[in-house]
Design goal:
The protein has six helices and ten strands. It is α+β, with helices and mostly antiparallel strands. The chain has one domain (15-270). It starts with 17 loop residues before the first strand and ends with a strand. InterPro entries: HVO_2248-like.
């Protein structure tokens, strides 16, 4: 499905205040999870490099990041559906399937559709939360319209500004925008290191060293202003007292509610 196709006829409520819980039961699960989080860190570094590249526009760097997020969600779904996942998602939404794999496919297909919206809607932010527990992990996909707090770093793209400025002010604005882009690139490089520290290589660490972990992040746009932000969070290791062998839809965690309160302004709406 391309970003230009019609809307996925699923249930938009599937994302709202819910997460997908995935198993972490064996070495294969651990390696897959580490590959996923390493790819997230790599994407942060790639975007930082693009922001430093004078031949690459801020919008191009932003859209490449969205493309990468789309691709990662498609790949994640296909790990469990063993092939194209759209059919499983449609079957879940039509009530023809109620298993965890189909629910996961529908959850991620809804996420992909909303990511596609971000190419044309210029006042939306992606606000995911990834948590690791002793025998599982959760992915909480969230999208936001409205204000964000000062936990995010804003950077400007003069070429997308509609402001008419006198030459002397335009030069100041351009220089300040370049500085904000460099600061954003610095932050992305720092957050890539945080991700790798929070989710270490299972071949190089003991189970106790990687028992829990978590990150919350933001990427978004408001007109000519773009934003980024990421920090580590600590989930409750005792939240779940069972193991899962397939994807399962679960209620959002206390960490999700806390991060929403800390990162979102009073006028923000979780979609």
């Amino acid at each position: 499905m391309s970003r230009h196709e019609s809307r996925f006829a699923g249930d938009a409520r599937l994302l709202h205040r819910q997460a997908i819980r995935l198993p972490l039961l064996d070495a294969d699960d651990e390696r897959q999870f580490h590959r996923t989080m390493s790819a997230v860190a790599d994407a942060q570094e790639r975007k930082a490099a693009l922001l430093r590249d004078p031949e690459t526009s801020v919008l191009d760097a932003y859209e490449r990041q969205l493309d990468g997020l789309e691709a990662s969600y498609r790949q994640a779904a296909e790990v469990y559906t063993d092939g194209p996942y759209e059919a499983a998602a449609q079957a879940y939404s039509a009530g023809e399937r109620d298993d965890g794999t189909a629910a996961f496919a529908a959850y991620l297909l809804e996420a992909v559709w909303r990511l596609q919206q971000m190419f044309t809607i210029h006042d939306m932010a992606f606000f995911p939360l990834i948590l690791r527990y002793p025998r599982s992990r959760t992915v909480n996909v969230r999208f936001v319209r409205g204000g964000l707090t000062d936990k995010v770093h804003w950077y400007e793209s003069p070429e997308h500004s509609t402001e008419e400025l006198a030459d002397e002010y335009a030069d100041v604005y351009r220089n300040e925008s370049l500085w904000s882009q460099k600061e954003a690139a610095n932050e992305m490089e720092s957050t890539a290191r945080l991700i790798r520290e929070e989710f270490p290589d299972p071949e190089e660490t003991s189970p106790d060293e990687r028992r829990t972990g978590g990150i919350v992040s933001v990427v978004g746009r408001r007109g000519s202003a773009f934003c980024t932000g990421l920090e580590t969070v600590a989930p409750n290791p005792d939240r779940f007292d069972d193991a899962v062998t397939e994807p399962t839809v679960v209620e959002e965690s206390p960490v999700a509610r806390r991060t929403a309160a800390e990162w979102l302004a009073d006028d923000a709406v979780l979609l």
